[in-house]
Specification:
40% helix; single chain; globular; alpha/beta; 16 helices
Amino acid sequence: MLGEYRIEGRRAAEIAASVESAVGRGDLEPGQVLPPMRELAQELGVNPNTVASAYRTLRERGIIETAGRHGSRVRSRPASTARDAIRVEASAGVRDVSLGNPDPALLPSLAGAFAAAAAHSDERPVMYGEAALDPELRARARAAFDADGIPDGPVAVTSGSLDAIERVLTARLRPGDAVAVEDPGWGALLDLIPAIGMRAVPVAVDDEGPEPAAFERALDEGARAVIVTDRAQNPTGAAITAARARALRAVLRKHPSVLLIEDDHGHGIVDLPLHPLAKGDGSWALVRSVAKAYGPDLRLAVLTGDPVTVDRVLGRQRLGPGWVSRIVQRAVVELWAADAVVPAEVSATYARRRDALIAALERRGVAARGRSGLNVWIPVADETSAVARLVQSGWAVAPGARFRIAAAPGVRITVSPLDASDIEPLADAVAYAVTGGRGDGGRTLAT
């Protein structure tokens, strides 16, 4: 059952650590079946309840899953193996369009903002016991939320979108709860949910966001929370339209106890209007990161939501990092005050690159998606062969397995590194890759 590997330990924590470390090293592989609890208890000379506790810990950490009489097995993607490991290394001579980064040329200089923030700190250093939020950042964030029709609520600051989402989930849900997520969706989020002991339920996505029927099915089946991306969805570029927002709100009204989390990381780089789902009732949160507009290393996101949820997030944050650096907060205030990023200009640049690539692929009979944001999603019949052929042609793309649960295969291309001269050669390479070199331009795939 386990080959040559022997699970060890006398206490539940030791048994769980033995399995988790074996999974991390690759000694126990995804899908491998673990011994029945009584059998392992007898082998280790411990009480079956000890093994049951160890298995429960492993389930909560996203390492194993249990399927009733079929027993327990290592998850197909254990939490100890991040989806970022599913990637193609771009060797010499291969262009890397896989990473999802913004274009450095479209990011503002941070030097002046941090110099001003440091000077502000020199005049009045922030000490223990002071407010966690810069007052001007709070005011500007709340004004921007108001302008976009986001319901009134307190503001918090976290170290990026994923930090905010994790804090909201753990503030409201418990291990074992089901969370509805977009599929395909953000790989880091799909890793996070099992890592905190929760279960991801896939919801299909089209160009206008989550499909209402799939959305409703996930909630009918017991999802306790739902996470949606309002604009620039990763990896498909979907953006929620006004009509889709109305349809999804209608579903949410039937499930008033469901926690709604909205990710608007596209704020600052997308000029499509925001159509928030939150209406100010129930449990909800909306988070905006500055990573795409100002750079991934500026680890800051602003969060708003219902008072109970935000209060729980702030309370738990006080017992951990305490607060996000007020110097970093002040630098973001300086960037906002200077209008360092103009969404229409940045969005137009990314749109030109996306639209050019999608049009070039369409001329070759290849279907592709990318309504907003930095990425283009291309359905393929076989991810492994398509990725390999593209590498041979000089392009490293992101395998769709990084973003999928039950969705059909695909590959993601980030348009940030592209210029006009790249479009035709890349489209040729993609057309070759998705057809297996048959030369039919992908027409069989696109139908």
